[in-house]
Amino acid sequence: MVGSESSGSPASAVTPGPGELDRTAGEQLFSQIGCNSCHTINDVGGIVWPNLTTVGSRPSRDPGRWPTTEAYVRASVEGPGQYKVEGYTTPEMPEPDQLGLDDGDIDRLVAYLLTLKG
Predict the structure, then answer these.
(1) Has residue 104 been placed in a domain?
(2) What is the domain range of residue 104?
(3) Residue 91 — pLDDT band, cuts 50, 70, 90?
(4) pLDDT tens-digit readout, 6-48
(5) Separation of alpha carbons 32 and 95, rounded Å
(6) Number of folded domains in the chain?
């Protein structure tokens, strides 16, 4: 039957795809490593650093350096001091190695942040 849950395995009906897994893992990692203690998303979290509620829909802050939103977000995670958002003069965001993040963790964080469109 079309649309019947019996047409596929029960696991396939509820198992998220790879992109969703990265996004979910990135969201969990964001909380786990404490990003939400400084950054706000949907009125939840700290207010020390920029609000990230719509970071996934923002154009790159410097299109000459980062031609896409993804490139800007990735650069901001990989090297947080690369761009200072005007009005924020708080202590530096920790570097990925200080947080124990590997390339896969960065990919997951970026996947999550790109879903934040407000």
Answers:
(1) yes
(2) 15-113
(3) low
(4) 444 444 444 445 456 678 899 999 999 999 888 999 988 887 7
(5) 15
(6) 1
**Exposed / middle / buried, residue 94 (Cβ in 10 Å: 0-12, 13-18, 19+):** middle
3-state secondary structure the chain: CCCCHHHCCHHHHHCCCHHHHHHHHHHHHHHHCCHHHCCEECCEECCCCCCCCCHHHCCCCCCCCCCCHHHHHHHHHHCHHHCCCCCCCCCCCCCHHHHCCCHHHHHHHHHHHCCCCC
How far apart CA 101 and CA 28 sit, in angstroms, is 13
In a domain, 1, yes or no: no
**CA 33/CA 44 separation, integer angstroms:** 16
CATH of the domain at 56: 1.10.760.10
- Residue 65 to residues 19, 25, 96: CA-CA distances in angstroms? 26, 28, 20
In whole angstroms, give the CA distance from residue 112 to residue 5: 29
**Total length of the chain:** 118
